[in-house]
Design goal:
With about 190 residues, the chain is mainly alpha-helical. The protein has one domain. It contains 6 helices and 2 strands; from the N terminus they run H-H-H-H-H-E-E-H. Strands 1-2 form a two-stranded antiparallel sheet. InterPro entries: CCB3/YggT.
């Protein structure tokens, strides 16, 4: 029975994470000022806008951050935690759920950035087509992270800026997201 429960939990996590990916992509694409004419950007906009448009009337953007998309991402992570706790038959404290959802969202965004920076650096190393819509969108998303280190970490023809950014993202997961997870787990358990 435990194996079936674990398999069902995995499927639930995959479904919620796929949905969260769409809204995180919208959030980061807007923050990075991705080209709207890009077909991938249009796809993301088309499938996120029906939910975000009514929320944006109440919760407008702050600078370049789409607060509506951020709220939806947080609610997706919160709902995911509620469903997983219900599946396990546990009744956590509300404060713990709220902190766990925040930790989950932060960790998700950090891992998302980590994958994008790694993929972008790998593709650019092999000379991929710079006009491909996916590569242009990824470049617009990772550019704000890489911009402060551009040209400062070059040794010969190798640019170590992506490696430094990835190490920073991994450290943020260890030093910020993991303690937040621990704190949320303690609050959820009532400790």
């Amino acid at each position: 029975m435990i194996y079936l429960l674990n398999a069902f939990s995995l499927l639930i996590e995959i479904a919620f994470d796929a949905l969260a990916t769409l809204f995180v992509l919208r959030l980061l694409a807007e923050a990075g000022r991705a080209d709207f004419r890009n077909p991938v950007s249009q796809f993301v906009y088309r499938y996120t806008n029906p939910l975000l448009a009514p929320i944006r009337r109440v919760l407008p953007n702050w600078r370049r951050i789409n607060l509506a998309a951020l709220l939806v991402c947080y609610l997706i992570m919160l709902l995911k935690r509620v469903v997983l706790f219900a599946l396990a038959g546990a009744a956590p404290h509300v404060a713990g759920l709220l902190v766990l959802a925040l930790a989950e969202l932060l960790d998700f965004v950090l891992v998302f950035y980590l994958v994008l920076v790694f993929g972008w650096s790998l593709l650019s190393m092999f000379g991929a087509d710079g006009y491909h819509p996916v590569l242009r969108l990824v470049e617009a998303i990772v550019a704000p992270l890489l911009r402060p280190l551009r040209g400062k970490m070059v040794v010969g023809v190798l640019d170590f800026a992506p490696a430094v950014v990835m190490i920073g993202l991994l450290l943020a997961r260890i030093l910020v997201a993991a303690p937040l997870f621990d704190w949320g787990s303690r609050l959820a358990g009532g400790l």
